[in-house]
Amino acid sequence: MAHAAHPAGGKPGTPGDSVTVPGQAGGAPAPGPQAHPKTVLEAAEINRALTRIAHEIIERTHGAEHVVLLGIPTRGVPLAERMAARITGVEGRQVPHGSLDITMYRDDLRLRPARRLGPTEVPAEGIDGKTVVLVDDVLYSGRTVRAALDALNDLGRPLAVQLAVLVDRGHRELPIRADYVGKNLPTSQAEVVRVLLTETDGEDAVLLEPVGTEPRPRRGGVTGRRR
Amino acid sequence: MTAEGTTWVIKGARPLGGEPADIIITDAAISEIGPGATAPRGAQALDASGLIALPGLVDLHTHLREPGREDAETIETGTLAAALGGFTAVHAMANTDPVADTAGVTEQIWRLGRAAGHCDVQPVGAVTVGLAGSRLAEFGAMAESAARVRVFSDDGRCVSDAVLMRRALEYVKAFDGVIAQHAQEPRLTEGAQMNEGVASGRLGLAGWPAVAEEAVIARDCLLAAHVDSALHICHVSTAGSVEIIRWAKSKGWRVTAEVTPHHLLLTDDLVASYDPVYKVNPPLRTATDVAALRDALADGTIDCVATDHAPHPVEDKETEWAVAAHGMTGLETALRVVQEAMVDTGLLGWAQVADRMSARPAAIGRLGGQGRPLAPGEPANLVLYNPATRETVDPATHASRSRNSPFAGMTLPGQVVATFLRGRPTVLDGKPA
Amino acid sequence: MNRHLISAADLSKQDALLILDTAEELAQVADRPIKKLPTLRGRTVVNLFFEDSTRTRISFEAAAKRLSADVINFAVKGSSVAKGESLKDTALTLEAMGADAVVVRHSASGAPLRLSNWLRGSVINAGDGSHEHPTQALLDAFTIRRRFGRGDGEALDGLRVTIVGDVLHSRVARSNVWLLHLLGAEVALVAPPTLLPVAIDDWPCSVSYDLDAALPKSDVVMMLRIQQERMNAAYFPSVREYSRRYGLDTARVGQLPEDAIVMHPGPMNRGVEIAAEVADSPRSTIVEQVANGVSVRMAVLYLLLGGREVAQ
Q: Class assignment of domain B8-52+380-432?
């Protein structure tokens, strides 16, 4: 599978072909598990971005008075928790936060077997009349956010809905944009943005790697999926 | 009908599995049998090298369905199926519509069998009028009719009334007849769907306990002894029944018994698919029962194999289990199943197969010209069988009108190559002659 | 998971927990102003009920509708053969209608399995004869799990469940024995000897004829409905004697551990197998079992129909 991005170099799975040098012009080294994924954001950079986003939210909502943060599982949830903690650190007030699973609202359900549901925990205050900030790790096609808007619609009537993402990688397929962005990252569709967070994966990092790369083994690791 | 009178020389067959020999058939009889026999001029030759020669098989228990259920089988299709299975005589059970409880109906069945000409049809007479279990049928009239009925059975139903069974056993002595009992205590098996055991508990199907068969057999053996009459037990299916029959025979009582091919091979865990092709009466039982039945057939406690060929149209079997009809076809697969269960396992040799599937059933049925040894002067009723093939059973290729074979899709050894009825071939090269 | 849900005995522990965890999430829908999810829009679910059962049929109907599926109700009375149209013909009609899932209740054990041979869609067994009623067992397990505070991914290890009544004829008992055992519960059956299958030793549970001895050791008591017709077939001498020996009255409830719960699949014979006061007490889960039934059935429908193929 590690050879998928190389046009030459033998069929995947042929015994012994991991030893042959692929015939790609330029002599790029054969991809191994450590070499190719590029670290785009390290732990410290991630935390700085989250701090900045928290301040931006406070600024734009004039104090985050009626804000509810809803993280989209899986990794949007710990990101929302961290943002809420930072806002509390500045404003001194508890910020309601929770999770909104959008599996049941996806538009691509029939492309894969039925998926496991993630947790939906809406704070007791609800969302009516609130400014809901959806939080996700990567913004890509925009379909996940579209599903989240439909889900919110069935839960109540927010005053406004905003979107905070750690990484915006472009290639939108719907007219959707983020209000708060940690990092704008131009990518090609042959690449995957893999976000790792301590709460879910044991470390903080944002990686850029070719499609088909095996995730490196780590505690609680879950492969990313296209958003 | 082709003229009896053709001469046949069957070359290199192995009679009863023994050394190769040539068999000469002149008119309706075997005229010579031995290695290098001289072929008369004008004789038709049949190369039988590698084939086993057995006396024509005799089935004590077949349902030909005519009159009344010609959608399932007719005497024509059923006897053709029999011939393809190597049978030269079948006993046609009486649960037709109208029931074969009079000389008239039994003669009709007998004549239809002669007209079809594929094998001898010996009608079985009902024990009670209409199989209703209350009045004895006219045994005497049936015995003296052209059909010469000697075996009487209410098969399908049990003669459960003890007094009626006693009277039947007594009365039939006047014609050297035999009562063949379908042993099933009716109250213990009301609504029963399958063998009562581990499988029935899990599958949620009402159970048919072994004791319902064994209790009736025990009672009838004692009755037969008490009135000194002959009793035959149809389709024995449990280890307990075997023990009772063994005990009765050890006392010298005139008890005989049959077992079906399916009870020698199949068990009740097949019912887990709820496919009604496995629904039969008596039901498929456990591996312990199968083992006991095989041993009993091997040591002669069970006298013979009888198919209980029970054809049913598709609509009676392609339903939910509870409403499906009971029964399995069996004529065309019988010898192959016996080879699989008894010969290839070393329990029976071919000579004993001849005894269990030809000689003894003919004796129990009191059929004079059938079940005779393969010897000069004997009627030329014989079957040539290739034991070396292994093929998948496909009911779509069967001659029977019905397709309800539980062996569908199974690979079984053997193939009937030719069947001769009094010197005339009914089957040649595995196909109707 | 299999393409069909016909028998609790066919579920793996992973499958069962997936269904329960999914039901836990979907249960929230019942509390929302808009009790609907768009997930099964465009899918057709047929309720094929050969036996009358308003409550189970409505439960499946509600579950399907909450997922925005189209529901068609097909009530077929009586035996198929007696009424002319065979089981197979009914199946072929449903195929022609393009049913994505068929929920079947039938008086003949094995009917849903037979139907699955003739249908491309998923078959969900809503009760077949005396064989199984898997969604009932799932909602029972869900109810127990919730009442005993077990969470996401957790099973029923260590819980002692006693099932009382006509086990011989009960599809609810069968499905529950297999599923509860799978989920780690200790299952005990209590019944008169006539109402236990002959080969009961083969089942993964203990057996007793003595209800009073079993109660102090039970975290869950599940009462099965007793049918009056069984008295006529000599399974027990009288309803009075049955109720005296195997009925759950207030006195018996006093023998239960403090946190024990009382369950019943319904419909109840108040005063026979269960006293009215017991059915209405806080220990009784009878009402919440109904609500949980919808959540569990939503989970089953989603996992079977909510993707290209069945959930893994």
A: mainly beta
